[in-house]
Amino acid sequence: MSIQSQIDQMPLNKGVKVIVSNEDGLLALEKPVGLLSHPNTDEDNKRSLLRATYDYEEEVFIWKNEAGEEQRAWLINRLDSPTSGVILLGLNEEIARLIKQCFIAQQVHKTYFALIRKTPSRLSGDWKDVLKKNVQAGQRVVKNVRAVTAKTHYEVTKTAVGGFPICLVRLMPVTGRTHQLRVQCKQHGHPIVGDRTYGSFSFNREIVQETGQRRMMLHSGETAVRYAYKGQIRDFKAVSELPEAFNEVMRFRPGVNHGRSQPGPRPKPQPVKRQLVKRPTSAALAQRRFKH
Predict the structure, then answer these.
(1) HSE-CB of 235 using CA atoms within 13 angstroms
(2) Which residue intervals of the chain are DSSP H helices?
């Protein structure tokens, strides 16, 4: 079966899209926010990238095609459930193992976008932190006993004006630690908007109240790797556009549509008894918001 036929018959879950693939069987999918990279239980496959059985030992999805033949796709990297964007799979074990080695050797270049609270004093720079990691000891997990180094380059790309005290940053991790970007943003005083584990909970509530956006504002925007396979040098690159939810939060202004988009024709204005309507002034709104 050709690679394209394999891709066409992949049991992609709702919202998952193929961004790009190549002749080696390497492909990039776009993962929507809320989906798991892989099922955590056998009954969980409706919430993962593929509606398929998952072998946790080999890290591979298994399903049958229309002809009843067994098909496999190896998961190469992962994204947290609340993170959207580019994620890689391999349609054969050899290419999957090779790209995983590229990750280990820090030869894969990943770019994330995040909305963070407050603008860093320096608009670009490098974060180098020591993170504590849990260790499995028999049947129990010992928390925060192993220290690992985390490195990330950041660049501020856009700052909100007149709205929330937030900015859009480009994050380029050098290392690949669990929750690395989320933890580093918090440690440097710039938690990611909507992060329910490491974020500012009161600020997140205000974002939801004003914009209706509940998701964590972290998106895997680009993944690129150069590798050698069967005597050929390959350049592979996948790009995922910034979700509209980011723009909605960035363009929020107090008292202006409450930051929410309003698609479709505008309703005809209805007469209002002005003496019954009491609206706060822009100055009053500015005074009572964003004080968390």
Answers:
(1) 0
(2) 3-8, 93-104, 180-187, 201-211, 244-250, 282-288
- Smallest CA-to-CA distance from 190 within 163, 221, 168, 161 is with 168
What is the average per-residue pLDDT within 24-36?
97
pLDDT at 250 over 90: yes
Please, what is the Cα angle at 123 between 155 and 152, to 5 degrees?
A: 40
- For residue 144, CA distances in Å to 66, 131, 141, 211, 276 come to 47, 8, 10, 36, 57
CATH number corresponding to 109-222+239-254: 3.30.2350.10
Q: Where are the domains of the chain?
A: 1-105, 109-222+239-254
| Separation CA 186–CA 198 (nearest Å) | 6
> How far apart (Å, rounded) are the C-alpha atoms in residues 212 and 117?
17
What pLDDT, on the 0 to 100 scale, is given for residue 49? 96
Write down the pLDDT at residue 144. 55
Cα–Cα nearest to 191, from 120, 247, 288 = 120
Contact status, residue 189 vs residue 118, Cβ threshold 8 Å = yes
The pTM (predicted TM-score) of the whole model is: 0.83
Nearest to 227 by CA among 91, 80, 100, 37: 100
Q: Does residue 13 have a pLDDT over 50?
A: yes
Per-residue pLDDT at 46: 82
Q: What are the structure tokens assigned to 81, written together?
A: 């459930």
What pLDDT sits at residue 255?
74
Nearest Cα to Cα of residue 55 among 77, 37, 39: 39
CATH ID of 1-105, from 1.10.1760, 2.60.40, 3.30.70, 3.30.43: 3.30.70
pLDDT confidence of residue 163:
93
228, 236 contact by CB (below 8 A): no
Strand partners, 116: 167, 192
